[in-house]
Amino acid sequence: MPLFRHRLSWGLLVAALSVALCARAENEVKTQEEAEAVIRLQDQRIAQEPQRAAHYVRRGDAYYSLNDLQRAVEDYSTAIRLDARQDAAYFGRGMALARLGLIDEGIADFDVYIQRHPDDTVAYTKRGVRHIWRGDLDAAERDLKRAVALDASNAEAHDDLGVVFAKRNRLDLAVPHFAAAIELDPTYQKAYHNLGICFYLSSQHQAALEVVDAGLQLDENNRSSLLLKAAILSALGRKAEAKEIAERAEFLPEGNWTERSALIDRGKNIDR
Question: CB–CB of 17/261 below 8 Å?
């Protein structure tokens, strides 16, 4: 069996559904240089006002943006110790802890944040994603439906809710949410990939190819989407093209998204 066909078996296709991780904070730094400048500034402020909790939150955010998760957690924890009212520190620490593999601890921080901010659509989205990671699809569905109810334009929540339905083999429910995510945010490459998987699994191969090609226009070297395209082309009988694309994809780095699910079903088929 060709390698790309093996990689795109039912279980692995569902496991390949991409789930967003990082917050799209309004004050999120955009570049490494910007983050490093924030850290230097907060270092100075902390030296002058070591008991000011907000300084640690801002530095924690900058460390998080650099993927220095341990230092981010340390700063968020210091902020909470100094001032338990620092809600942004609970949000940030919840994000960082889960990415460090401490998913339950991250959810606990989101519990605190959401109790204080019950109408925050992003917080429900992020907690819902973490419930996906821990395999609690019921809790994930509740959170993501709440996120969409609070803000129907939340593309990320639509995409992640689609993942929940796809993992339950309810492609009929997943497809509208992936499509909504694309309509709301045409640059959301993960949603194209996820929708393409659904079309492929339901044998709508031409539609799958069109969607995946649209996503690849946003990221032409996305390894997962190229492997998916190879499987689609093979299903359409275009074996030579499929082989060429699969061979090209094999030399690309694993995982070209900055945010994606850590869930892999370890070779087991998902038959829900």
Answer: yes
Q: Tokens 């939340």 sit at which residue?
A: 154
Q: Which two tokens stand for residue 244?
A: 């060429």
* CA gap 237, 240 in Å, rounded: 9
Question: Tell me, what's the pLDDT at 253?
Answer: 85
d(CA 230, CA 174): 23
Beta carbons within 8 Å of 219's beta carbon, 6+ residues apart:
189, 225, 256
Kindly give the residue spans of alpha helices, DSSP state H, lying in 168-261.
171-184, 189-201, 205-218, 223-235, 239-250
The amino acid sitting at 196 is G
Could you read off the pLDDT of 16-67 as tens digits, one per residue?
565 543 333 434 566 899 999 999 999 999 999 999 999 999 999 999 999 9
Contact in structure between 24 and 170 (CB atoms under 8 Å): no
Q: What is the rounded CA–CA span in Å between residue 207 and residue 141?
A: 27
Weakest mean pLDDT among 53-57, 139-143, 201-205, 262-266: 262-266
> Does the pLDDT of residue 86 top 70, yes or no?
yes
180: left (phi over 0), alpha (psi -120 to 50) or beta: alpha
Distances (CA, A) of 163 to 56, 109, 129, 168: 35, 23, 10, 9
Count helices and strands (H / E) in the chain: 15, 0
Q: Token digits for 24?
A: 């799209």
Q: How far apart are CA 61 and CA 211, in angstroms?
A: 35
Structure tokens at 246: 């699969």
**Token pair 């994606």 is at which residue?**
260
Report d(CA 255, CA 272) in Å as an integer.
26
Integer Cα distance of 166 and 71 in angstroms: 35
0.90 exceeded by pTM: no
